[in-house]
């Protein structure tokens, strides 16, 4: 990456006047305001359990306006991404850097109030379920997840993530360019030097039982089939993989609603794989809902952005 890329955010923002706390704002995104109805109760759970939480819902239209206005240096990259999930991945980093707050995928359900988690830290990341990290992806460690993140504005970790987006474009696949593999690499780099960071620049990666998943994840992600193959061989199978597979294939796992028993969990991730838009963009009207009509407290960031004159020309026709 050219040094000018590293300096772009410094030139634009100065990185001097920063908010030291995570704003109590929830950011979520979907291509349009018409959202799959299966996610309705999960989306509602955030403000039901956190009534003071401000809720911003980003459509592709709003995100593009933000990129044009605040991150034009990265707009070409944003538009270049061949898959919509790459743009959805990238937008959450830009939104959290610009505004701060909490980002959650629409298939993540809140289980308890977030105030203690958010108010006491500067930047927080969840982990992918271990069955996804170790079995589905075959990794040798728990991966960081971009399905649930919370950061103060201008946090240097989010700055580092954004600055590395250009250098990842030659990697193969979604996970390496904008997703959890990319994010986890940056986490490893950032935390290696965290002993010298100020408190307001620290990063907390949550224990895996703070973000749990439904047992349907094992079925949808092909983990059960992979475990059935793994237990037939001994070479190359780690102790962690064996323990996870024993649990996945157990009778208890088939009956339980979640993969991990935890009273400490803040969220449960249902992993609908909504990035596979072809399964969700041609839904019948009864299978989707207009989030701004049915959840009137939810704010459209675009309505705020168009108050700035330079945004007006970017609004697409209704």
Brief summary:
The chain has 318 residues and is an alpha/beta fold. The chain is 41% helix and 14% strand.
Keywords:
318 residues, disordered C terminus, globular, three-stranded mixed β-sheet, 41% helix, Spore Coat Polysaccharide Biosynthesis Protein SpsA, Chain A, alpha/beta
Describe the structure.
This protein is an alpha/beta fold and 318 residues long. It has a domain of 221 residues: Spore Coat Polysaccharide Biosynthesis Protein SpsA, Chain A, CATH 3.90.550. The chain is 41% helix and 14% strand. The strands form three sheets. The protein has a six-stranded mixed beta sheet. It has a three-stranded mixed beta sheet with strand order 5-10-9. It is globular. The two termini are 39 Å apart.
User: Can you summarize the main beta sheet?
Assistant: 6 strands, mixed
SSE pattern: HEEHEHHHEEHEHEHHHEEHHHHEEHH
* End-to-end separation: 39 Å
CATH architectural name of one domain? Alpha-Beta Complex
Task: Please give the radius of gyration in angstroms.
Answer: 20 Å
Helix content bin: 40-55%
Total DSSP E strands: 11
**Overall morphology:** globular
Which assembly state applies to the chains in this document? single chain
Helix/sheet category: alpha/beta
Could you name the CATH topology of one domain?
A: Spore Coat Polysaccharide Biosynthesis Protein SpsA, Chain A
CATH class of one domain, named Alpha Beta
Segments where pLDDT lies below 50 for 5+ residues? 13-17, 309-318
Q: Within the largest sheet, what's the order of strands?
A: 3-1-4-7-6-8
> Average pLDDT across residues?
84
Q: Assess the beta-strand content as a share of residues.
A: 5-15%
- Count of separate DSSP helical elements: 16
């Amino acid at each position: 990456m050219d040094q000018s890329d590293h300096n772009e955010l410094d030139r634009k923002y100065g990185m001097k006047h920063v908010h030291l706390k995570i704003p109590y704002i929830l950011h979520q995104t979907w291509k349009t305001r018409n959202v799959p109805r299966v996610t309705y109760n999960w989306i509602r759970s955030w403000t039901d359990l956190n009534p003071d939480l401000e809720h911003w819902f980003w459509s592709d239209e709003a995100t593009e306006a933000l990129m044009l206005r605040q991150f034009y240096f990265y707009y070409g990259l944003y538009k270049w991404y061949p898959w919509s999930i790459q743009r959805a991945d990238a937008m959450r980093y830009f939104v959290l850097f610009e505004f701060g707050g909490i980002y959650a995928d629409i298939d993540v359900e809140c289980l308890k109030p977030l105030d203690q988690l958010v108010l006491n830290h500067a930047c927080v990341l969840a982990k992918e379920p271990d069955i996804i990290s170790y079995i589905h992806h075959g990794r040798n460690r728990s991966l960081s997840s971009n399905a649930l993140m919370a950061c103060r504005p201008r946090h240097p970790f989010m700055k580092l993530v954004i600055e590395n987006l250009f250098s990842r474009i030659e990697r193969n696949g979604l996970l390496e360019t904008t997703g959890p593999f990319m994010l986890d690499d940056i986490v490893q780099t950032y935390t290696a030097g965290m002993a010298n960071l100020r408190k307001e620049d620290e990063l907390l990666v949550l224990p895996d039982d703070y973000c749990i998943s439904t047992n349907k994840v094992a079925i949808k992600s092909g983990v059960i089939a992979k475990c059935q193959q793994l237990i037939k061989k001994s070479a190359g199978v780690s102790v962690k993989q064996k323990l996870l597979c024993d649990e996945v294939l157990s009778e208890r796992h088939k009956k339980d609603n979640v993969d991990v028993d935890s009273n400490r969990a803040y969220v449960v991730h249902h992993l609908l794989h909504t990035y596979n838009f072809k399964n969700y963009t041609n839904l019948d009207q009864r299978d989707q809902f207009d989030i701004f009509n049915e959840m009137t407290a939810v704010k459209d960031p675009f309505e705020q952005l168009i108050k700035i004159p330079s945004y007006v020309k970017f609004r697409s026709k209704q």
